[in-house]
Amino acid sequence: MATFFGEVVVAPSRAGLDEEEEAREETPEDREIRREIEKKREVDVLWSGGAQQPLVCSRFVVAIGRNAAAFLSSFILDSVCWEVVGVVKLWNEWCKTSSTTNVLPTDSFCLFYRLISDPTVLLCQCSCYVAEDQQFQWLEKVFGSMQKKGLQVTILSTCPVADYKTQESTLTLVSPFLKALKTKEFQEQVCCPLLEQPNIVRDLPAA
Amino acid sequence: FTLLLQPAVSVGNVGQLAIDLVISTLDMTKVGYFYTDCLVPMVGNNPYATAEENSTELSINAEVYSLPSKKLVVLQIRSPFIKNKYRPFCEALLSWVKSSKCARVVLLSSSHAYQRDDEQLLGTPLRYLLTPDLEKAVGGQVKELNWKEMEKVASYPGVSDTDKVLHIPGGGITKLLFTESCSEGIQMAVLLKFCSEGDNIPDAFVLVNYLNEWLQLIKSEVSTVRSKWKIPSSWRLLFGSGLPPALF
């Protein structure tokens, strides 16, 4: 692609496939390095001793991202009614989760809490960034530990207003505002309008 | 026999846009999806919604649609491949093609326009490829259409007597799927267009009309090219939200 000044630059293609990566055959050293990296990037879900698996769960609220996690901390969580029952440990280029359960709001963490008065109600606060290649693993390992019959899942997350596509300019939009996506099986009333096309959700909330 | 139509995630996303046009115009029914860890997750409401009532069905990154009257099955892919996952995806896809007994596969794709050589700069920007098994079946039909086969290039450009290889820059998984299909005896056709990143809607129309020359999915008329295909509602605001009036 030629820029205005006449220099040729390689534009990142939406094809998303790195040409060099595709052309080169993987040597045994490459394979070894790749395996080591995969191991380092593995997602570990650790449940505390009191939590018997598969976890019996009726309601699971997952807060993804710092804002959603902060929402739970400010309005829902407290040390009297909720106890920590699990933690996710992971590492990627953007963050490493702290292994302690006494976390500061500025830490990157992923913790699971259980309502003491009703142990089938679970909360997850995930303020760390879960990379593309770890999202599916996170999903399988977390939900794999749960009995899913009769389970209602609520996912809370935030997106920048600038990413929202609408006819008018986003500058004039009254924000923040809520939008929802729901599966057919969710029969209850939703408290806000549904997310209209062409807007989409990606990454861990989408997974 | 059933025909599977699918896109490659390639330059300009032309294949995917063309598939959107096919699904939208033929009003195809969703029949399933791929639960895969190979594509970046995404979810949204129905991209082909035409009214309030049908707008709330969730849609994800790899879904399958069908039109039994035309014995047509379409796979749409809506997000990029996760690093190192495109090979497992291709393997899973081809094994699904074989197990579901799809007789033929047509792959819509694109390739970087700037990589064309002097000859390719002239004439049509559209190309095709057929695996040997499909060549036997429809080679004659395709010859009648006067299409241009994708040229092979020297594996070491500049060196005169080297082997000629297939090279599809910007084509994503196109080359891998095609070469695998050749060796596994799958009847596959690749239809691609040379293009660059930008507003690729016109490229999608050109590619889908090219496809239509052969498959006759909709009636082709001599009149305006755009009017026959139905643009899905999700193509709105492709380049972002409205502009603030204070800008001017």
From TrEMBL, chain A:
Belongs to the PSMG1 family. GO terms for molecular function: proteasome binding. It comes from the Eukaryota. GO terms for biological process: proteasome core complex assembly. Keywords: Chaperone. One of its GO terms (cellular component) is endoplasmic reticulum. This is Proteasome assembly chaperone 1.
TrEMBL record, chain B:
SUPFAM superfamilies: Cgl1923-like. Keywords: Chaperone, Nucleus, Phosphoprotein. Its main location: nucleus. GO terms for biological process: proteasome assembly. One of its GO terms (cellular component) is nucleus. It is found in: Nucleus. Coiled coil: none annotated. It comes from the Eukaryota. InterPro entries: Proteasome_assmbl_chaperone_2, Proteasome_assmbl_chp_2_euk, PSMG2_sf. Belongs to the PSMG2 family. Chaperone protein which promotes assembly of the 20S proteasome as part of a heterodimer with PSMG1. The PSMG1-PSMG2 heterodimer binds to the PSMA5 and PSMA7 proteasome subunits, promotes assembly of the proteasome alpha subunits into the heteroheptameric alpha ring and prevents alpha ring dimerization. Forms a heterodimer with PSMG1. The PSMG1-PSMG2 heterodimer interacts directly with the PSMA5 and PSMA7 proteasome alpha subunits. This is Proteasome assembly chaperone 2. It comes from Phainopepla nitens (Phainopepla). The lineage of its organism: Eukaryota, Metazoa, Chordata, Craniata, Vertebrata.
